[in-house]
Amino acid sequence: MEAISAVLPGLAASATGSPDGYSGFPGGMFIGSMMASVGIDPSVLVKIGVTLTIIASVFGFLSNAWEGITQISKFFSDNLVSSATIRSTDEAYVYVMRWLYNHNISTDSRLFGVTCRKNQMNPNYRQHARWYGQDTPDDTESDGIGILDDALGPKLKYTAAPGFYHFFYKKRLVLMQRKLEDEYYGFEEPDVDLTLFTFGRSPRMLRSILEEARLEYLNEQRSSTLIHTAVATYPPTWSLGHPKPSRTLDSVIMSVSDKEKLLKDMREYLKPGAEKWYHRHGLPYRRGYLFYGLPGAGKTSLTLALASELGLPIYCLSLASSTMADDVLLGLFATLPKRCIVLMEDIDSAGIDRQSMSGAGLYTAIASKNDEDDEDDEEEEIRKREEKKKLAAFKQGSTVSLSGLLNAVDGISSHEGRILIMTTNYRELLDKALIRPGRVDMEIKFGNADIEILEGLFKAVYSDDGDLPDFIRGAEKMTKEERKQKHEEKLEILAHEFGSRVPSDKFTPAEVQGYLLSHKSDPEDALDCLDDWLKSKLNELDLLQESEKKAKERLDRATEKKVKELQKKKRDRIKGERKEKEEEEKEQKEKEEKEKKEKEEKEEKEKKEKEEKEKEKEKKENGVSSGEKGKMVDGVGEKLTNGITEKEKDSVSGA
Ligand SMILES: Nc1ncnc2c1ncn2[C@@H]1O[C@H](COP(=O)(O)OP(=O)(O)OP(=O)(O)O)[C@@H](O)[C@H]1O
Q: Where is the BCS1 N-terminal domain (predicted)?
């Protein structure tokens, strides 16, 4: 208190409660007596003031100290620490998270996050997935770490929670910070910034960690193919990629020549120096393929197998997705990596054609068509089926137009280096512009299984992978090699039998494979039950064919009716035109005759008038009536008037 009173004279006095104490500063006496008059003890106010002053001083000191600490830490981080920040939207994040997980780094920490599988029952999550046109999530999470199931369900996964961690890499201390982005919606995963720090100005240690993480991840991924799907963010991006187990080309059973031709073409396109060759020849470095044909015939399987064989990631696009539009498509093509396969499945389902140019146009067209269809149920039944499929696609909301698609595929700013694979079940529905050479360089048709495919499918399902129970007599006494050889010999015979008993070109490979898988542990059982399956399938097929035949007959009848109607319309039109022409000609003739008649009458009238005028004139000149004139002597005109000749008249006038 003494110290305070030394600084602020009068305050100490006021603290004692004496109003006289206020005389130490101007007006103090007056304020003191005022406060005393309203019953406030001035000493309390003074104490509060002093306390506030002390608190403010402490805060001031601390904030200056914090500023100092920040400056020091900035100095350290600028000069003595190296750091690398990776955002969770970047593929490198997956490398690092996977690396941390493999090396048990964050999971050993005192702070860790625990997740099970994403809650697929969460309505918000489902809504989000639907909104963005995503499939329900699979086991691989966005940090690239899959969750395995045990017998009871998904296991727990431990990852780094937000915060600071430390670990040692090659005996050196590394700090790590995991920070969640502040703003995110509840049903999205928040973006995360992962920062690694090492002491020292050299970033070599960090680069070494990142490179190790990259190599580890990519080597792990070799046994799988990365599938990226479009995510409708703004701007649109690709998902980080879900690894799918690699598929060998041998596992896709199709015409060997087609397979070889395709693979050779793709290898040729991808080989070093090919890009320069394209550019030297003034060609855009792009290659497109169309896989078309029946559903379940192996189009997607072949694409997966090709990607595995060529070591390329797949970027999947669904044109029928509700979020797909011209600018989205263009943005997605612009962000493709240099080498990849772009897979556009079921391109017919987007409802794109030249007439409508966009889904919206098509919708209107089909809507009006369907109104007409109500009037005539039989008409254009098969085509209607296809149109309904397109309409369904449009109802999903795709607004991609043909020009937008062509622009993305090979417009001036279009991406180079990719392989584009388009698949469709209905090649005939595609616009010619989309599949013209240059956009589609090779087409592969997928049909029902012929004998070669039937045998191949059989062998593929029952190949000796060690799991198959022995179907070779006396196998237990054989060596591994002998057993393998016997297995192959027997399989060859069984496959041949299977191929000969199943009718060729009747079933899709998927149907055949489905049957074989229902007997996957016993090829002989598959042959024993084959007749029953064939009977039921062929019966189904007969029914199907019967209904298709009826549909075709109905279509033929409708077409015939339509043709007749059109012919009748044409005849009526021609008749009508002819009649119209005749009437026109008649009218024209009448008009001409009328005009001619009028002209003649006019001429006649003019002639008469002229004659009359002449007569009039003569009359005036000669004074002779037309009757008398007739009596004149030709050439001489002996008498003119009153019996006087011209000569007499002249002589009279001369005299
Ligand atoms: N040629 C084939 N060789 C091996 N398996 C095949 C073949 N065709 C189909 N399958 C099998 O049938 C299933 C469906 O095949 P896939 O998805 O490749 O057919 P798709 O032609 O792409 O069908 P969709 O047109 O309906 O997309 C897969 O399980 C696949 O393994």
A: 57-252
415 within some domain: yes
- Four-point Cα dihedral 325, 330, 334, 336, nearest 10: 50
Last residue of a domain, one of 446, 476, 495: 446
Question: Closest residue (by CA) to atom 16 of ligand 1?
Answer: 298
Q: Tokens representing 382?
A: 């098969």
16-20, 90-94, 196-200, 522-526: which has the minimum mean pLDDT? 16-20
Mutate to test the pocket of ligand 1, among 300, 422, 424, 463 (most ligand atoms within 8 A of CB): 300
Ligand 1 near 194 CB (within 6 A): no
CA atoms within 13 A on the CB side of 538: 11
Span between the terminal Cα atoms of the chain, in Å: 174
**Which residue's alpha carbon is nearest to atom 14 within ligand 1?**
296
Q: Could you tell me if 238 and 118 are in contact, meaning their C-beta atoms sit under 8 angstroms apart?
A: no
In a shared domain, residues 62 and 87: no
Ligand 1 lined by 359 (C-beta under 6 Å): no
Tens digits of residue pLDDT in 507-545: 999 999 999 999 988 888 899 999 989 988 888 777 777
How far is it, in rounded angstroms, from Cα 70 to Cα 88?
27
Give the residue, by CA position, lying nearest to ligand 1 atom 4: 252
- Cβ atoms within 10 Å of 290's Cβ, excluding its own: 23
The reply to whether 210 and 91 lie within a common domain is yes
The domain containing residue 341 runs over which residues? Answer: 242-446
Supply the pTM of this predicted model: 0.56
Q: Which one, of 335, 134, 126, lies nearest residue 231 by Cα?
A: 134
| 292 and 346 together in one domain | yes
Alpha carbon nearest to ligand 1 atom 9, residue: 298
Q: Which residue has its alpha carbon closest to ligand 1 atom 11?
A: 510
**Domain end position, chosen among 512, 528, 544:** 528
- Ligand 1 mutation pick, 250, 291, 301, 463, max ligand atoms within 8 A of CB: 301
Å from CA of 295 to ligand 1 middle = 7
* Per-residue confidence (pLDDT) for residue 510, from 0 to 100: 94
Q: Are residues 297 and 391 in the same domain?
A: yes
Does one domain contain both 22 and 95? no
Instruction: Give me the helices (H) in 1-41, please.
Output: 2-7, 11-16, 28-37
Q: Which amino acid is at 114?
A: V
Q: Is residue 215 part of a domain?
A: yes
Distance CA 422, CA 599 (A): 77
Summarize the chain as % helix, strand, coil (round to 5): 55, 15, 30
- How many whole angstroms from 636 Cα to the centroid of ligand 1? 126
CB-CB contact of 227 with 316 (8 Å): yes
What pLDDT score does 499 carry? 92
Task: Please count the CA atoms within 13 angstroms of the CA of 279 that sit on its side-chain side.
Answer: 6
The encoded tokens of residue 636 equal 């001489």
- What's the CATH number where 277 sits? 3.40.50.300
Return the minimum-mean-pLDDT range out of 150-159, 292-301, 548-557, 626-635: 626-635
Cβ–ligand 1 contact at 399 (below 6 Å): no
Question: Considering its fold, how many domains does the chain have in total?
Answer: 4
| Ligand 1 mean position, distance from CA 291 (Å) | 12
Q: How do residues 282-309 score in pLDDT, each as one tens digit?
A: 888 999 999 999 999 999 999 999 999 9
Expressed in angstroms and rounded, the spacing between residue 296 Cα and the centre of ligand 1 is 4
Q: Please tell me whether residues 271 and 399 are part of one structural domain.
A: yes
